[in-house]
Amino acid sequence: MTIYNFSAGPATMPAEVIQEIKNDLPSYKNSGMSVMEISHRSALFEEIFQKAQQDMRDLLKIPDNYQVLFFQGGCTLQFTAAPLNLANKYHRIALLDSGHWAERAGAEAKRVGVKVDVLDSSEKDHYTKLPSLEKLQKDTYDYLHITTNNTIEGTAYTQLPNTDTTELVGDMSSNFMGQRYDVKQFGAIMAGAQKNLGIAGLTIVIVRDDLIGKVPNLPSMLDYQLFAKKESMFNTPPVFAIYAAGLVLQWLKNQGGIDEMEHRNRQKSGLLYDFLDNSKLFEAPVIKKDRSLTNVVFVTGNPEIDQQVVSQAAESGLVNIKGHRLVGGMRASLYNAMPYEGVEHLVDFLKNFEKNYR
Ligand code: PMP
């Protein structure tokens, strides 16, 4: 039975990449050593590293005046690093509360003494829509933090909020490389790798040059300027995760890049949303214009039926569709590596479930 893994992260990876890792594992490029065993300062790894960075620059069209930095510590550590590095003038940031990960980002900023103003929240609507930005007071905030894709609640920004002269910082963890955004519109972007870029242990930060190097004596492992200077090799980087990301980036290039991924993600999520919108049993609670292309949330309204859906789906090879505990119901994560057929199978399963249920 083919298994389709709808996990929100760590998540399904391209089958070709898994196969490549398998082939490479005993002896990388006939070196007699696996990638796990070579020095991060070796020529073999240097090549992997440079190529991964360049491929990311090409795919995302990252302008030259932006740094691409590789960190450990997950995106959660960036909720600390971003305010430490970037909230250096007003020591105050603005936040649009679109759900759990936005709230977490605000909480961590506060822990390092930065004031956080929540300008709008969609909590009252159970996060089934995005908050909106009515007005952003000038010369008040170091930046506005948004979560471009809300992994748990299933919403995503297509149109970015207009921040005028205030910098925009985006947590792009769950639609990084899956949807086209213009990097120039952001002061900084952060994203964990374990959804659309391979395996856990690597976090990407893309940050504009002129915003960094303003705060002396930051903890080294959180210092954007230091990481830029040391080309993300201040200490031992997550070698295997960078290698895996490199393979995913090459795969993305072979598939046609980010625009092609967005196109496919629209098709995949469209197939599922269309079914849900016409179903009498299932419902997609998120309003149409704010729906995520990568995390599709749906419910029956009855937790017992939801539970049956989740377990029967798993028996059919459609695994990890249980919704996050904060939202309940179901969630299908349709990252780049999820093939269209996976979603067709899921929709067929849901159709059958509905038919047999009535
Ligand atoms: N932001 C978003 C949007 C996420 O989905 C996640 C993880 N699911 C995080 C941040 C936290 O990432 P990490 O676990 O890598 O710290």
How would you describe the overall organization of this protein?
With 358 residues, this protein is an alpha/beta fold. The chain has 2 domains: 15-254, Type I PLP-dependent aspartate aminotransferase-like (Major domain) (Aspartate Aminotransferase, domain 2, 3-Layer(aba) Sandwich), CATH 3.40.640; 258-357, Aspartate Aminotransferase, domain 1. The chain has 9 helices and 13 strands. The chain has helices at 15-24, 43-60, 74-86, 100-111, 224-229, 239-255, 257-278, 303-315, 340-357, and strands spanning 4-5, 66-71, 92-97, 115-121, 143-147, 149-150, 155-156, 167-171, 188-192, 203-208, 295-298, 318-319, 330-333. The strands form 4 sheets. Strands 2-10-9-8-5-3-4 form a 7-stranded mixed β-sheet, sandwiched between helices. The protein has a two-stranded parallel sheet with strand order 1-12. Helix 1 (15-24) packs across helix 6 (239-255) and helix 7 (257-278) packs parallel to helix 9. The structure holds 4'-deoxy-4'-aminopyridoxal-5'-phosphate (PMP). Keywords: Amino-acid biosynthesis, Aminotransferase, Cytoplasm, Pyridoxal phosphate, Serine biosynthesis, Transferase. One of its GO terms (cellular component) is cytoplasm. Residues 3-346 form the Aminotransferase class V domain. It catalyses: O-phospho-L-serine + 2-oxoglutarate = 3-phosphooxypyruvate + L-glutamate; 4-(phosphooxy)-L-threonine + 2-oxoglutarate = (R)-3-hydroxy-2-oxo-4-phosphooxybutanoate + L-glutamate.
